[in-house]
Amino acid sequence: MPTRLITADTIDTAFARGERRIVARRGEAVVSPGAWTRAGELEVEIVLEGAPAVEASSSVGTPKATAPAAAKPPAGDKGSADRTVDKSGLVLVRGHSVRLGKFTGAGPAFNIGLTDLITSRDGAPMTAGIMSWAREDSFPWSLDYDEVDLVLEGILQITIDGRTLEGRAGDVFYIPKGSSIRFGTPSRTRVLYATYPADWSSPAPARPQK
Known about the structure:
Blueprint: E1 4-6, H1 8-16, E2 21-26, E3 29-31, H2 33-42, E4 45-50, E5 54-55, E6 64-65, E7 70-71, E8 83-85, E9 91-93, E10 101-103, E11 112-118, E12 127-134, E13 139-142, E14 146-160, E15 163-168, E16 172-175, E17 180-184, E18 188-196
Parallel strand pairs: 1-3, 2-4, 3-5
Antiparallel strand pairs: 4-7, 5-6, 8-9, 10-11, 11-12, 12-18, 13-17, 14-15, 14-16, 14-17, 14-18
Helix pairs in contact: 1-2
């Protein structure tokens, strides 16, 4: 039975102590998807030794055994994820495989992880992906598109017109086009976002009439 849970907060704590390598025994540790992502962002290595370990999954079911003995999530500019694309157009993205890239849209001073998972290249009229950041990287943003955010981990705070709404894991935000907000968190957060239109810098396609 696993006895140790390694989360994004575990990575942040280790990083603050100057540690760049976390070692745990397989079969005695569960590593959350957020931990893998944060480790990649901070270049902290997670090493699993011994018997097979399990990796936490957002889906209900039996935990999945991790493959590598030592894992350091790749951190390409755009991130990566394992995808299955059916000939019908159906797309499946494996949540445990998501590795966040570097989002520079808010400015070079912010350390924000982001990966688009579904885009117009899939024929979708919207874009969906995952974004993550810590308290010190909370940032202002103006939206030229509509956005829905599902909080996956941590606490998401959205401030608009001087008012702040706070969402926790499982909560959903809708942010209307034209909003000027601040994406914040008192600790850190991991969010699934969906934006419309997919290529929001281009004119939006007409929406169906009710």
